[in-house]
Amino acid sequence: NGCTSAGPHFNPHQKTHGAPTDEARHVGDLGNIETDAQGNAKGSTSDSLIKLIGPHSIIGVR
């Protein structure tokens, strides 16, 4: 089911869905993670909307 199979996106500000590089997007729009044939993934990202502390922290969100 594409991105819907991963569950809801983190969207504390009720913004529209978009790509990581779009001006109009919500915090959970981080792009796709691709795996190798064994199901392993590695990589890194940086994002100006993600917060690790405060009321909209992504830590501990389910």
TrEMBL record:
Subcellular location: Cytoplasm
Gene Ontology annotations for the cellular component aspect, listed alphabetically: cytoplasm
Superkingdom assignment: Eukaryota
Keywords linked to the UniProt accession: Cytoplasm
UniProt-annotated stretches for the region Disordered: 1-26
Any Gene Ontology biological process: superoxide metabolic process
A GO molecular-function descriptor: copper ion binding
Residue intervals of the Superoxide dismutase copper/zinc binding domain: 1-60
Function field: Destroys radicals which are normally produced within the cells and which are toxic to biological systems.
Stated name of the protein: Superoxide dismutase
Gene of this entry: SOD
